[in-house]
């Protein structure tokens, strides 16, 4: 997690509670100039099989959304005879700048293998808006977009 160094509420939550979970990485840093550079930093710092980009004003509405996503990915890979783990999986979100008819998600999950292959989670030339649609197009062009409309997110 990236926590802005002026976010006292979240820092207090960490100090009071989250420190108990040593597998949770917390980076307390100044507010980034480029959100996507921060997302890339976090993605490259993680060790999990998948990385997801959610921000602090998101509410995951679907119970067990992560298990649904993993099941969708497994089904997608089997259906498409995909042997590697290069995959993009979106959520069904209501982000104000998202055009739902275009297929992309403002909050996606990308496999560790895909991040390692292309060397990033998001394109940093987009300081904020637009990177979500751009990274979707990258994976869509190679047939690696796993639909995950069962996972609802409210922003």
What does this structure look like?
It is built from 5 helices and 9 strands. It starts with a strand and ends with a strand. By secondary structure, the chain is an alpha/beta fold.
In short:
The protein has 155 residues and is an alpha/beta fold. It is built from five helices and nine strands, in the order E-H-E-H-E-E-H-E-E-E-H-H-E-E.
**Biggest sheet: strands, sense, closure?**
4 strands, mixed
Shape by Cα distribution: globular
Instruction: Give the class from helix and strand content and strand pairing.
Output: alpha/beta
Q: How helix-rich are the residues, as a percent range?
A: 25-40%
**Tally the helices: what do you get?**
5
As residue ranges, the low-confidence spans are none
Strand order of the largest sheet: 3-7-5-8
Measured by DSSP, the beta-strand proportion falls in: 15-25%
Radius of gyration based on Cα positions: 16 Å
Tell me the distance between the termini. 18 Å
In round numbers, the mean pLDDT is: 84
Number of strands: 9
Order of helices and strands: EHEHEEHEEEHHEE
Please name the defining characteristics of this protein.
alpha/beta, four-stranded mixed beta sheet, 155 residues
């Amino acid at each position: 997690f990236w926590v802005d160094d002026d976010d006292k509420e979240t820092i207090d939550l960490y100090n009071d509670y989250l420190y108990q979970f040593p597998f949770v990485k917390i980076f307390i840093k100044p507010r980034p100039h480029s959100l996507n550079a921060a997302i890339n930093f976090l993605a490259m710092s993680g060790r999990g099989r998948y990385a997801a980009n959610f921000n602090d004003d998101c509410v995951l509405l679907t119970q067990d959304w992560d298990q649904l996503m993993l099941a969708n990915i497994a089904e997608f890979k089997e259906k498409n005879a995909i042997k590697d783990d290069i995959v993009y999986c979106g959520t069904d979100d209501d982000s104000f700048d998202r055009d739902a008819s275009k297929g992309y998600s403002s909050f996606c999950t990308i496999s560790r293998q895909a991040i390692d292959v292309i060397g990033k989670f998001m394109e940093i030339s987009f300081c904020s808006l637009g990177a979500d649609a751009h990274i979707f197009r990258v994976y869509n062009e190679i047939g690696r977009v796993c639909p995950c409309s069962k996972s609802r997110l409210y922003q």
